[in-house]
Design goal:
Radius of gyration: 20 Å
Strand order of the largest sheet: 1-2
Oligomer: single chain
Order of helices and strands: HHHHEEHHH
Strand content: under 5%
Number of strands: 2
Helix content: over 70%
């Protein structure tokens, strides 16, 4: 279990680095585009498309970082209204539901990547399928993170560690 947790921690660190790099790429490309357009009166034809593709990757890789600490938007009202002994089970079941959704996203993301609706972008010089690859990659990485969280939650639940679940969602109130 500790090796898997270390592996997920590594994925989290790499996703943070990739997200920061993506932000810097978008910032640099858009700054260059503004400079070329308004100072040099010339346009970079590839800048908008590269920025869009980078933002797509940024969303899916950034979601891995957000998923690691379970920081996506959620409303814990129902969980907090339940008796304390049921709260851990509902939390675990909700994470399993997220895992099922991510599995569906992975399967359909692979279908989109392998689909026939991919075009060649002459502006960037590559196929649009490489932007679409962000869907299954992001889903697979988020699945690993959620599996690690489910395993940790089950371990704490089986150990009777109710304090682990006590503050779930209370920081949002």
């Amino acid at each position: 279990m500790q090796y898997f947790t270390r592996f997920v921690d590594l994925i989290d660190r790499l996703a943070k680095i990739a997200s920061i790099a993506a932000v810097l790429i978008v910032l640099s490309v858009m700054t260059a585009q503004v400079f070329f357009r308004y100072v040099l009166n010339s346009s970079l034809h590839w800048s908008e498309e590269l920025s869009i593709w980078t933002m797509i990757w940024m969303v899916f890789i950034g979601s891995v970082v957000v998923m690691r600490n379970w920081e996506h938007v959620f409303i814990p009202t129902v969980i907090l209204m339940l008796p304390q002994r049921l709260q851990p089970l509902v939390i675990i079941v909700s994470k399993i539901a997220v895992l099922v959704f991510l599995t569906v996203l992975l399967v359909y993301g692979i279908g989109v990547f392998n689909g026939t609706a991919n075009a060649f972008s002459f502006n960037v010089g590559v196929s649009t399928k490489w932007a679409k690859l962000s869907i299954p990659v992001g889903a697979a990485l988020m699945m690993l993170v959620v599996i690690a969280q489910i395993l940790e939650d089950v371990r704490h639940y089986l150990a009777g560690d109710r304090a682990f679940f006590a503050n779930y969602g209370k920081h949002d109130l």
